[in-house]
């Protein structure tokens, strides 16, 4: 169901976040993430005027992961920033992502390593979407592998969202083996 019709309004700002996942020839995966903020109007920043339509932020983050979702490499770039010469010097700090697992407390470790003055607020915010983006990237292969092997392994996605709760109707329909029988009192 779409959103309701909005009240009369005027666009002032667009934040776009994209993540593209690439299977590499060497068996690893690259997740290329980008966050871009664009104002529709000219703004005055402490560092000078930024014309409307030009990015205030255009930040990129690439992490390379293995099949176990362990980060094997990371790099960042800051192509448009509000404070040139300052914001765009933090990219090397994102090497601290190497060694982290996207599946094991990634957001907690991210915060420990790169929150506040240890990183760029926007790049660190962007990194937070990487675990779910990686899961989506692997989803079709995981489904194929699960079906091919008739795996006894419980599907990862169960009990991770409202629709796929093990005591709910979607799991009963699509994953009957893993459905919990609800006992009414």
Automatic annotation (TrEMBL):
It comes from the Bacteria. This is DUF2889 domain-containing protein. It holds the Pfam family DUF2889.
